[in-house]
Amino acid sequence: MTTGLWIILDHVVALLTIATWFAAGVALALRRTGPALAVGVAAVLVTLVRVVTVAILAGRGWWFVQEKVLLGLPMLAAAAAVAVLLGGRHLLAARRGRADGRSAGGVVSVLTAAYAALAGLVVTLLVGYPLTWGTALITVSLVVAGALLTARVVAPPAEHTAAAGVARASEGRGGISRRRFIGWTGGAVVVTAAGAGAGLSFLPAETVSLGGRPGRSSRPAASVAGLRGPGSPAAGGTVRRHVLTARKATVRLASGREIDAWTYNGEVPGPAITATQGDLIEVRLRNADVEDGVTLHWHGYDVPCGEDGAPGVTQMAVRPGEEFVYQFRADQIGTYWYHTHHASHLGVRKGLYGTLVVEPRGGQRAGEHSAAEPVDLTLPVHTFDGTVVIAGSDGRAEHPAPAGTPVRLRLINTDSEPHRIVLAGTPFRIAAVDGRDLNQPGEVSDIGLHLPAGGRYDLVFRMPDTSVALVVDDDRDGGLRLRPPGDAPDEPRLGDTSDLPELDLLRYGTPAAVPFDPRTADRRFTMVLDRGVAMVDGRPAYAQTVNGRGHPAIPDQLVTEGDIVRFTIVNRSLETHPWHLHGHPVLILSRDGTPSTGSPLWMDTFDVRPGETWQVAFRATNPGIWMNHCHNLPHAHQGMMLRLCYDGVTTPFAGTHGGSASHGH
Ligand code: C2O
Ligand code: CU
Fold first, then answer.
1. Among candidates 535, 539, 608, which has minimal Cα distance to 568?
2. What is the DSSP string of 98-124?
């Protein structure tokens, strides 16, 4: 069973502990001895099951259980033990007909077990990892306060029984004053502890994490504003100039349907930018009327930091009437894309994106010798109002391809959710992932591909003399058909594509040497992804968090040029998080502790699915301040975004990253 399923099961068992302890407490209060005993036994059993589910999750990683093991379970276990002692003893006595009415101590202790169970789940859902002293103090205070209040209600001062399961009152007049004393002291302790807990959470938080190495050096600072691209192409290269004007426009899709889009040059996707390795790409970005402001970020392309298009970090957002010129060498070959990075959760969804493809210099790649003119299609997949649009086409697209032609399909996921890709009618290879060629990728067929948000796959094959179908999200009516001229039927034999197993890229292709020893690391950072209550852009929110915090309160990760950096990324939540570091591809080391055994796999965006733990590494060779975030762009906007900072690099820019609060959603 996957860790994600265990997380769900653990939540269900946690709910059951709450329900059974509450039910037992109520039955006891109503003097329903029989039901109380039955439900009480169930509560004890469910609590024991909870211990098992937490133990199993602990085996998957401490991050999944820390707050449960240190706070939730001890609280529940302590309250449950008292409840069994007081409530159980009373019930058994009652069964044997040796006890009158009810035991206040039993009721209070059983209900306290319910409060403890509830508090534990609330801490898991609202706070998560890491547990802080502040959270622990507040939580315990609330549970004890609940117990004291319950005692007041269940055992009014006239009754001579135990209060809060803490002390059995002595007989006679002294009892009342002693219980008062307990009540008042208990109240005072609770208020003090809760206050201390609340105070702790206002302590200034860490702003930089060092990953296990010495802190900042005092070497002279370089500004990101000075980290710009070269002004000329490599020898033999040319300059590729573009002007991209961001503007709102009505765009007509292939079916004739019109959408209200935010565009570059009135087109969706924006103009395709292509180059040959060594060319200089120069793009003048203008903003006509997108009030939020725009930038251009070269997704997966390791440009100098000043060209990276991160507003408030590498430049200011380009407001209407303004412009910004990007310039960088096309040194990396492969399939990439560009998009606005300002208010990107809105802008990209509405159409502010386009493709960037760089071909190797000197023509064909190894293994692509052919007389036939190759078919090379760049296919950004984007969803507009629930309709999947592939390269501007919202219905099924057709493309001719003579038999024997080498075909390359460059799939780009420009959405915030993953897509499932099936290629039917031919065996094929995944030649490149995120623009980087794989080592000796084998031929596959009858398999589904999981394409993360922001990710790219280059699929290559030689055209057969029958049709080939590209099916996205198992929708046979859409997608793309390649057909050899003549009378080939327009559909290959398509079974139920949703039944096909998913290819595991961590076992695909052949191992090869990598440029650094991934077993060593100079700095290690752990990012635990979850939901929780946190500050995002200065406001409290039910945020998408990294280590319990939201942007911009997540500590910067500090690296030094040349460091080998290891990331451990843990997904405690029930949503998929496509992780994306700017400026560097990362080498995938392992998933859930299982090492990658296929081709070296370099990705810039990889899906960390619920319950998964990924280890990745990279060498810090591109100085700057780089965004490091979830590429589900609404998640990034809800806080799941931080910065990786090179020692000594500063930025003169500031301001919000996620966009103004003024725009209407
Ligand atoms: Cu494709 Cu920070 O983004
Ligand atoms: Cu996410």
1. 608
2. ---S--HHHHHHHHHHHHHHHHHHHHH
Ligand 1 environment, Cβ below 6 A:
297, 299, 339, 341, 454, 580, 582, 627, 629, 631
| Cα–Cα distance for residue pair 614/606, rounded to 1 Å | 9
Confidence of residue 101 (pLDDT cuts 50, 70, 90): low
Range of lowest pLDDT (35-44, 210-219, 339-348): 210-219
Beta strands 602-603 and 586-591 are antiparallel
Going from the Cα of 128 to the center of ligand 2, the distance in angstroms, rounded, reads 16
Angle 280-357-278 from CA coordinates, rounded to 5°:
30
Q: CB count, 10 Å around CB of 135?
A: 20
Give tens-digit pLDDT for 379-389.
999 999 999 99
**Nearest one of 91, 103, 109, 98 to 160, comparing CA atoms:** 103
pLDDT tens, position by position, 398-416: 999 999 999 999 999 999 9
Residue 130 CB neighbours (<10 A): 16
Residue 396 tokens, joined:
């099924």
**Mean residue pLDDT across the chain:** 91
Going through 159-238 in order, the beta strands assigned E by DSSP cover 208-209, 222-223
CA 133 to chain centre: 26
Q: Burial level of 648, CB count in 10 A (0-12/13-18/19+)?
A: middle
Cα 341 to ligand 1 centroid, rounded to whole Å: 7
pLDDT at 93: 83
* Residue 371, C-beta contacts closer than 8 angstroms, at least 6 positions apart: none
Reference 581, options 599, 569, 563; nearest CA is: 569
Contact of 429 with 445, CB cutoff 8 Å: no
Q: Which two tokens stand for residue 337?
A: 């894309």
Range of lowest pLDDT (107-111, 121-125, 175-179): 175-179
pLDDT over 50 at 159, yes or no: no
Closest atom of ligand 1 to 636 CA is: 2
Cα(194)–Cα(538) distance, integer angstroms: 23
